[in-house]
Automatic annotation (TrEMBL):
Binds either 1 Fe or Ni cation per monomer. Iron-binding promotes an acireductone dioxygenase reaction producing 2-keto-4-methylthiobutyrate, while nickel-binding promotes an acireductone dioxygenase reaction producing 3-(methylsulfanyl)propanoate. This is Acireductone dioxygenase. Catalyzes 2 different reactions between oxygen and the acireductone 1,2-dihydroxy-3-keto-5-methylthiopentene (DHK-MTPene) depending upon the metal bound in the active site. Fe-containing acireductone dioxygenase (Fe-ARD) produces formate and 2-keto-4-methylthiobutyrate (KMTB), the alpha-ketoacid precursor of methionine in the methionine recycle pathway. Ni-containing acireductone dioxygenase (Ni-ARD) produces methylthiopropionate, carbon monoxide and formate, and does not lie on the methionine recycle pathway. Ni(2+) binds at residues 86, 88, 92, 132. One of its GO terms (molecular function) is acireductone dioxygenase (Ni2+-requiring) activity. Its main location: cytoplasm. Its cofactor is Fe(2+); Ni(2+). It comes from the Eukaryota. Pathway: Amino-acid biosynthesis; L-methionine biosynthesis via salvage pathway; L-methionine from S-methyl-5-thio-alpha-D-ribose 1-phosphate: step 5/6. Its EC number is 1.13.11.54, 1.13.11.53. It comes from Grifola frondosa. CDD domains: cupin_ARD.
Length: 183
């Protein structure tokens, strides 16, 4: 896993867009983002992923096969959809089983994007209410296992006034800033 501030230069979302300003794991944790590396070729990787999911009370999962072969003609459209800034009402755990990708998280204190590059074996936990987006990198291939607590709360809520004022978003801000919003 490699994290840094996104450079905000227009262009292909699959490019690194590395500003040269690294972001530490401590800074990610201050946003509620946690990460692990569990090599896919290790003997007990499935059990370690299961243990983390159970510890975080995640019981629902789905696979994203972010490849042109799997998505066919809908690949570019899906990548644009995933790259639209959004949040979920549930935490999201993403484990990269193959390939590589980016998760960008919005730093609420600066409104900057932090880009996290993940490769096979990397696992990322995003808290409920954090704005984020996803894309494959230039390899155009990522097999990502996504885990949620509740299937009913894993819907996508694109950023907008209504989502900004949602109880989930306000709870996230309160939890990670200590300030009550919208009161």
């Amino acid at each position: 896993m490699h994290a840094y501030y996104f450079d905000n230069i227009p262009g292909d979302q699959r490019l690194p867009h590395d500003s040269g300003r690294p972001v530490s794991e401590k800074a990610l944790r201050s946003l509620g983002v946690h990460n692990w590396h569990i090599p896919v070729d290790s003997e007990n990787w499935k059990q370690r992923v299961t243990d983390i999911a159970e510890e975080r009370q995640c019981r629902k999962c789905n696979d994203i096969m972010g490849t042109k072969e799997a998505m066919g003609d809908k690949f570019d459209e899906k990548m644009k959809t995933f790259f639209t800034e959004h949040m979920h009402e549930d935490q999201e755990i993403a484990y990269v089983q193959a390939g590589s990708c980016y998760f960008d998280v919005h730093e609420h204190t600066t409104d900057d994007w932090i880009r996290v590059h993940l490769v096979a074996g990397d696992m990322l936990n995003l808290p409920a209410g954090i704005y984020h987006r996803f894309t494959v990198d230039t390899g155009n291939s990522a097999h990502v296992l996504r885990l949620f607590e509740d299937e009913d709360k894993c819907g996508i809520y694109n950023r907008g006034a209504e989502t900004d004022a949602s109880s989930c978003r306000l709870e996230y801000l309160k939890r990670f800033t200590g300030v009550a919003f919208g009161a």
